[in-house]
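Data availability excerpt. The first of two example chains:
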Amino acid sequence: MAKKKKVPGNVIAQNKKARHDYFIEDTLEAGLVLEGWEVKSLRDGKANLTEGYIFLKDGEAWLLSCHISPLQTASTHINPNPIRYRKLLLHNRELGKIFGAQQKEGYTIVALKLYWKNNKVKLEIGLAKGKKLHDKRATQKEREWNRTKQRVLKHS
């Protein structure tokens, strides 16, 4: 039976693929504008950030491709859209920082982690640069070496 990796209680969803595919150079915390049914679904842990990314339009940041599954008990008078655009709440200096980073060649802005902070939903976003195949191999090799090193230190 495979062990399930434990995540802290306040984490709703993580994008592990982003750390594999990108070098994360800087992280920021952003609030999210959500509807009531989305908050209820997040409390139930029904979110997927795997393909989530951020785009900038008209001086505002928006989250795309973050799938929040509606609950079966959602109200009958609303039509929930699980992949709608969600506005990010950032300060002007943070928006300027990510806008400047996105203008650089090879940089993108990805969603890393969705979590609770003081009963509010926060999104950790990262300024990222894409990895090449040889970079991914080097990261994997380094990770395996660290595991081996820890095993040797544990047994001696």
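And the second chain:
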Amino acid sequence: MSAHKPFKAVIPAAGLGTRFLPATKAMPKEMLPVVDKPAIQYVVEEAAGAGIDDVLIIMGRNKTNIENHFDSVPELEQKLREKGDLDKLAKVEHSSDLANIHLVRQGEPKGLGHAVLCAKAHVDDHPFAVLLGDDLIDERDPLLTTMLSEYDKRGATVIALMEVDPDSIHLYGAASVEPTEDAGVVKVTGLVEKPKKEDAPSNLAVIGRYVLSPDVFEILERTAPGKGNEIQLTDALEELAANPAQGVYGVIFRGRRYDTGDRLDYIKAIVQLASDRDDLGPSLRSWVKDFAATL
């Protein structure tokens, strides 16, 4: 496949976060801490770790916390420097140095497809990754780098798929697929948004990682509102999958994924990530065992 312009990354962060009210009344859900970093920082770190240094965050109203987080804070940095607290200084500077962060307002949330369309002017004619902040992918289990490689190899849209319990498939987009020559990669032949268990074409769920060609913008511009009266990215992907000249491929992810979009799963994500850390894990694991024994 011929060389293309460098990948950019798009992170939609304009949702209202109603499941986390009242915590999200004045703070974006993407800024809720997962252990000691806001959820969105994990996502930006993932993009940067895959070699993408141009990141566009699609924001809604009252999301200036996100902008501030990735900006430098000279007075705080100076205080930490004067105190000799170099560990904390490094953490503060790290979030400012991760990537070139750009921001654009969505106005009102009209669906994931509309959020992606808001990135058109910035992305221009670059291929780009879309990373949803609700899905945190463990840095020890690379997914995005694999997807970027598949895009380079096949010159087609690549989405992330994960096997889920059939009883949970109604919470996701479900893919109908055909095998390819690679065991971990499938050709997507169709997509169904949040199907009933009996109507699902498989238990392969679409999770929040996509690598897209800028050609998707032309499709999104004429995609009518679908489920929930929103412009669905799934509808555009279905059109791409049905076009033999374009196509959609799926990378099947079998690593560690943390769902922070649900209150219970958010708490589980914090416990899982903290228990794996050298500084917190030993004490936390011991406490969890003791606590579980009292239940």
